[in-house]
Write a structure and sequence with these properties.
mainly alpha, 84% helix, single chain
Length: 191
């Protein structure tokens, strides 16, 4: 009797381990999505800040064009405007939706694309999608492989966003610092 229950216990342990792995993947996906949201929020803040700086810079500069020419303050202003424009461009790249598959044709041709990522099925009909997801779920390991692939895609995209955000912050801080230092130097040397 003990020999009959032992395989059942081992099967339950294996099933439990499978659920644990899926929970880890699910938690990791949730964390990646939250970090992506944080990166998008930072990009929005940096984009808004630079757009506001450019918006307020123009009306503040126009009445003082003579002084700006006399003290050569156009140089730091040019650095600041260039910094703002480059920072805006990079933050827009962070916020821009990434490319995704148009998976209907690839799935019909036997490609093993995840049925859980909307980019792979958004152009499929309901019946095509239902057939495809049933087929993939029936494969057993396929679901885990798709979850792992989706997790990898999220991680790659998050890494790309974070890299761009670090670059944008570095450019913004460096450009701001250089324009302030140049302004001070030009004002002190002219006096």
């Amino acid at each position: 009797m003990e020999s009959n229950t032992e395989p059942v216990v081992k099967a339950k342990i294996k099933a439990k381990l499978g659920k644990d792995v899926l929970n880890i993947i699910r938690t990791t996906m949730r964390n990646s999505i939250e970090l992506t949201h944080i990166a998008d929020n930072k990009a929005n803040v940096l984009l808004s800040l630079n757009a506001l700086m450019l918006t307020f810079l123009v009306p503040l500069v126009i009445p003082y064009l003579d002084i700006i020419k006399e003290y050569k303050l156009w140089i730091p202003l040019l650095v600041l405007v260039g910094t703002c424009l480059v920072t805006i461009y990079i933050t827009v790249l962070v916020l821009k939706p990434s490319k995704f598959y148009v998976g209907s044709k690839e799935m019909k041709n036997g490609a093993n694309l995840s049925p859980f990522f909307f980019g792979n099925f958004y152009k499929m009909t309901k019946d095509e999608y239902t057939d495809y997801i049933k087929q993939e779920v029936a494969r057993g390991e396929s679901v885990r492989n798709h979850l792992a692939g989706d997790l990898h895609y999220l991680g790659v995209r998050l890494g790309h966003k974070m890299h761009l955000m670090r670059m944008a912050f570095h450019i913004f801080l460096t450009g701001l610092f250089i324009s302030i230092i140049l302004s001070v130097v030009l004002l002190l040397t002219h006096a």
